[in-house]
Amino acid sequence: MSTDVTTPGELTSFGVATLFIDGKWEAADTGATFDVTDPATGTIIGQASDAGGAETDRAIAAASDAWPAWARETAYRRAEVLRAAHDLMVERAEDLAHLMTSEQGKPLRAARNEVRYAADFLAWFAEEAKRVYGQTIPSNRSSHRFTVLKQPVGVVAGITPWNYPMSMITRKVAPAVAAGCTIVLKPAEQTPLCAAAVFKVFEDAGFPPGVANLVTTQRPEQVGDRLLDDARVRKLTFTGSTEVGTVLAGRAAATMKRVSLELGGHAPMIVFDDADPEHAAKGVSLVKFLNAGQACISPNRIYVQRGIVERFLEVLTDRTAALEAGPGHQANVGIGPLIDQASLEKVQRQIDDAVGRGARLLVGGRRLTDNGLDRGYFFAPTVLADVDESMVIYREETFGPLAAVIAFDTEDEVIAKANDTQYGLASYVYTRDLGRAVRVSEALRFGIVGVNDINPTGAQAPFGGRGSSGLGREGGAEGIDEYLDVKLVGLAL
Ligand code: ADP
Asked: How many CB atoms lie within 10 A of CB 442?
């Protein structure tokens, strides 16, 4: 690890006061804390406050009290604090990236990219705050007018995952705050220090007390239940598993909260034989092993047209074998650890099942334990060929460094197969045929299609899915609408 960079302990010099409520850092009422572990080494890197219902109630009260004044602020004022937060985040990028690598495991280069991405949401929504346009509608009566206003929904509850521990926070807090909402955020129990460091940015950028509140806990249900049952909370924004998201959305219905959900995925990647198999294999290796495969847009089914499948597999296998696994602070590391033991077991189970049903294991296939890697949760990047519908991996999200390749013959066949999933988040296609690119991107039933593009995301673009992948969009011009209610004003002259 480089020595001239602030350590996580120094950066998150909150002691164990990682709750940020009404503009103040607080410990849990009971003083309870929980350990935060580096998934690459098993080392405890810090502690976070373990909040429960009482602290959550206070955070909701703070957000609720702060809301009317924040809603009345001009969009320009709201933009100012978001812009300041962006600038501070960029200034602290190196420290934030190191903290992220220690707490979440991704290689430093990927952590730097995520900090940049996280900051992008702050800058984007600082601008979007100024573009919350209403509408006037011609009335059918001459002595009458219709005006449409967009107004902030109120107090927002945000729940975020560990895999992108900073950008998932700014992707929710920035549009909420830009719209004139206030927010209570509960981060994942695996990454509370990243969350605290992001909230330190908000504090230092001048967010008024109560506008953005942070409640860390290792008991998500306790905090979640309060957030969901409280009628003052008018909106739930959640990123996480389909399983949990479904339960939370059901619960949110009792108080009729607005809901946006960014859930699991099972992305198809389609490589047609008119594409360059080498270029496609390089692309696949880049996107598949990003964050060790722990991304909801990670390709889970890689369909390759039969004529080029062997060449594609050769290149993919070579590149996969060359990936260096290790703690993300080490130079040249291309793949970090998984987040925990259960993740290792899931990947192994999918591989064993697939191989047992006839898949070919071309590289990887096991946990890595040499050279001290046994202290962390490292899994060898893996390529499986001859995957078919009988295998668990064909339907179940992997969330690990496992590329499953399936041969196909025709365009119609592969579109039908790609769409044959309950999920509908990301999809990808490689082709050099323009007509085919248009046909296939229109036929895929997903919220996102990358055409010869392995990174079809950005703060300025709407991100989200269909079906079991969720509801609503984050980022883009659409992102702020999730935090706005439409009000019709009829005026009789
Ligand atoms: P993952 O499998 O990626 O960890 P989860 O859906 O379990 O996904 O977690 C995503 C977020 O949801 C985390 O912040 C987690 O603490 C939170 N969470 C999990 N269960 C609940 C719950 N019952 N109530 C509220 N939040 C929850």
From this structure: 9
Q: What is the DSSP letter of 139?
A: -
d(CA 18, CA 351): 39
Residue reference for tokens 């220090």: 193
| CA 437, chain centre distance (Å) | 27
Helix extents (H) in 46-92: 53-72, 75-91
Beta partners for residue 304, in sequence order: 271, 407
Q: Tell me how far apart the alpha carbons of residues 134 and 33 are, in angstroms, rounded to a whole number.
A: 46
Residue 87 CB-half CA count within 13 A: 10
- Residue nearest atom 15 of ligand 1, based on CA coordinates: 188
Q: Where are the domains of the chain?
A: 10-264+470-492, 267-422+426-458
Task: State both tokens at 384.
Answer: 């499986």
Active site residues: 262, 296
Beta strands 426-430 and 267-271: pairing type?
parallel
Q: What tokens appear for 107 in the block? A: 């290689």
- Domain 267-422+426-458 class? alpha beta
Atom number in ligand 1 closest to CA 187: 14
* pLDDT of the residue at 247: 98
The tens digit of pLDDT for each residue in 386-414 reads 999 999 999 999 999 999 999 999 999 99
- Rounded distance between C-alpha atoms, residue 104 and residue 198, angstroms: 14
- Taking only the tens place, the pLDDT of each residue in 106-152 is 999 999 999 999 999 999 999 999 999 999 999 999 999 999 999 99
- For atom 27 of ligand 1, the residue with the nearest CA is 220
Ligand 1 contacts CB of residue 241 (under 6 A): yes
**Pairwise CA distance, residues 287 & 319, whole Å:** 12
- CATH superfamily of this structure's domain 10-264+470-492: Aldehyde Dehydrogenase; Chain A, domain 1 (3.40.605.10)
Asked whether 215 and 134 are in contact (CB, 8 A), the reply is no
DSSP state letters, 219-253 = -HHHHHHHHHH-TTEEEEEEES-HHHHHHHHHHHG
Position 12 confidence tier, pLDDT thresholds 50, 70, 90 = low
Q: How far apart are CA 375 and CA 474, in angstroms?
A: 36
Q: Give the residue ranges of DSSP H helices in 238-340.
A: 242-252, 277-288, 309-322
Please tell me the distance from the alpha carbon of residue 105 to that of residue 335, in angstroms, as a whole number.
9
Q: List beta partners, residue 37.
A: 44
Average pLDDT over residues 436-459: 98
Residue of 244, 260, 341, 396 to test ligand 1 pocket, by largest number of atoms within 8 Å of CB = 244
- Tell me the per-residue pLDDT of 65-85, one tens digit each, with 9 for 90 and over: 999 999 999 999 999 999 999
